[in-house]
Amino acid sequence: MSKNPFIIEVSHVSKQFEDGKYALNDVSLQVKKGEFVTILGPSGCGKTTLLRCIAGFQVASSGEILLKGEDVTKTPPYQRPVNTVFQKYALFPHLNVFNNVAFGLKLKKEDPETIKKKVRRALKMANMTGYEERKVDTLSGGQQQRVAIARAIVNEPEVLLLDEPLSALDLKMRHDMQIELKELHEKLGITFIYVTHDQEEALTLSDRVVVMNEGKIKQIGTPTDIYNEPQNCFVADFIGESNILSGRMIRDRKVQFLGKEFDCIDEGFGEDVPVDVVIRPEDIYLWKVESQKSKVESDKGPDAASQADLDEEDRVPKGKFTKWYGEVQSCIFKGVHYEMRVLTPDGYEFLIQDYHEFLPGTEVGMLVKPEDIQIVKKEHYIYNYFEGEVTKNGKVRFIDADWEVMPQQIEGLEPGEKVQVRVPFRSIDLQDYEEEGTLSGEVHFILYKGNHYHLTIRTDEGHDLYVNTNDVWDDGDRVGIVIPTKEILIDKLVE
Amino acid sequence: MNKILQIASSRRTWAWPYVLFMLLFVILPLILVGVYAFTDIEGHFTLRNFAKFFSHSEAIQTFLYSVMIAVCNTAICLLIGYPAAYIMAQEDFRTPKVMAMLFILPMWINFLLRTVATVELFNIFGLPLGEGALLFGLCYDYLPFMIYPIYNTLQKMDNSLVEAAYDLGANRWQSFWKVIVPLSMPGVYSGIVMVFMPTVSTFAIAELLTHNNIKLFGSLIQDYITTTDLLNYGAVLSLVLLIIIGLTSFFGDNNSETEKGGMI
User: Fold this and answer.
1) Which residues of chain A are within 8 Å of residue B160 when distances are taken between CB atoms?
2) CB 3.0-4.6 Å disulfide test: which of A92, A437, A446, B210 passes with A481?
3) Are A221 and A82 contained in the same domain?
């Protein structure tokens, strides 16, 4: 066991609540001694639940949690060698700073001199020397957080768990504390597990980032991996800004999107496979071109035009890159760079960051280097798949509702027979008023794909539907769901 | 016309009826008690009534006995009320509202009626009336006043404080005594004050539940006040009681959390 490099091993942990929803769904994670690991995700993704399972405040419904190779899945929190820094500090208001920090040591019945020494050392580590006698409610947020950190590290835990410790602080304070936490981690040499929804914080602080969504781990990797090589659209969209487009992998190192072929450096997706293409806004090069219209009028070939344009800008990389064109829609100054929205003639919108200003209305050329094109496996293609059952009155029951289908679809099928139902993403209609739909639900996740939105709709019964639409919806919008009869495709299940 | 409107709409104007009420029914009676206490039956200033109290062993004994009964009642209410409040405030306790309702239900009925009913209950079960019955009756009447403030503070307490205690190595017992109890003290103070103050001056309950065999300080005052020529002495007793109650209300007042703990 002593050879075990992992201090924490979470294996296949699920946490199901009474209403049947999963806060954690088969999560596995291994943390090395001394690592700084961040669990990152939007609110409600299960990151805090995972932390609380490690701390012992919640017991996993299934799976195991090992600390130093020992099964602690059901061990109460006071018997675990971990300490927690809580989101709202959770300092004891009836005790002063000294007694807050000394709380754990006093429980261990250490002698008063040792306690004094250790508390002083911990407060020094947290830069809170001299505050021993202060009441905790007279301290500022940042100071309270420091005391909370001192209170946790004074017990010399092997793992320090931090539950969004900086979320209540203002921006400036948060940056200072980030640096202090990083230094503290280096000084102490213990394992830090840090929960946050702030991606910048995660990228700045950690050795490894665990991105979570909907109770599942979406990707584990170093901050650079997570940013540069997102493994799926969720990670690409959640970490930083990105342009996500539907594309097709033609073969290794060749991808098609925007109706054009691009060189890329990704391999192993197979040939002629639908994929998602992720391009970071800062990776697209921009340059001014003559108006498309005037180009047509002057009857120059498009190649000649772009050739001339390129000479004008030295900073645009030269070479055989696939280029595309568009018109700047908006331009916002963001301090260090400008952020432009560029619309192509075929209706794709790109978010682009550049140090140069391109005013709205400017016709621009765009290109991206092959190594900056990130290919992501498509998580779902074209169709929603559901399990269904033919009902007596010639309808098909799936996702907890009876649906009218075209008679030829269920020809030769007996009532009660199980079938597979296919519904294209494109053909689901969303209604503003819930009662206009056969089912109602909520917009759960939105992904902008350049020229359309890819939405995840969660029905009230808890089923997920994928919908492609050009309409603009907001997260959490209530919608009525309509599936036109002729769009429901039924396949007989092959036993 | 405008001026009238202005006067009618000002907050000060609306406060006047209350001020008047308080002057008539709070301040004036207090002054009267004071005046009667320091005068004799003809209305001349005197301290003889006070001298009489301090040499009147029966009055002092009754007074001490009343205080003792009140202390006992407060202690019993606390012992019964704290665990009840604690159980109700637990997150996984599913029916706090029902429990709270059950505790509050007796308060729908006037306490005198309840006390008369208690006497009947004691008679039915053949239990003797007396000191035991008195304590039972007092506890029965005042328990909700103890449970409520404590339940309130416990319920409002941030659960992460308890988790923090667990996290720092405290088991359930230790986190209860080192975190939950100290943090619920504001509620306990309110509860104590709200139970102790009315019990120390109670008289009707005592008369009913002890068949007039036990005299509390409240009864004593009533006896003197209703006897015309001893009215001034009764006023002294009232004043003494008032001062004692006033002192108890300062109990725990240095704790700024009292406001947050809140009565009901």
Assistant:
1) 86-88, 90
2) A437
3) yes
Please tell me whether residues A257 and A286 are part of one structural domain.
no
Greater confidence, A461 or A103? A103
Closest residue in chain A to residue B158, using alpha carbons only:
A90
Task: Provide the 8-state DSSP code for B166.
Answer: H
In eight-state DSSP terms, residue B230 is: G
Task: Give the C-alpha separation, A236 to A231, whole Å.
Answer: 8
Token digits for B29? Answer: 């009676």
Distance CA A114, CA A94 (A): 23
Give me B190's structure tokens.
């309110």
> What is the span of the domain harbouring residue A59?
6-228
**Residue among A57, A78, A86 minimizing CB distance to B169:** A78
Write out the two tokens for A196: 């946050």
Asked if B171 has any chain A CB less than 8 Å from its own CB, the reply is yes
Q: Are residues A467 and A478 in the same domain?
A: yes
What ipTM is given for this predicted complex? 0.74
pLDDT at residue number B264? 36
Task: List the one residue out of B136, B129, B146 whose CA is nearest residue B69.
Answer: B136
Nearest CA to CA, how far is B252 from chain A (Å)? 14
Q: Which residues of B touch A193 (CB under 8 A)?
A: none
Q: Cβ–Cβ of B167/A83 closer than 8 Å?
A: yes
pLDDT band at residue A151, thresholds of 50, 70 and 90? very high
The number of angstroms, rounded, from the C-alpha of A138 to the middle of its chain's C-alpha atoms is: 37
For the domain B57-261, what is the CATH code?
A: 1.10.3720.10
Cβ contacts below 8 Å, chain A against chain B, sum to: 63
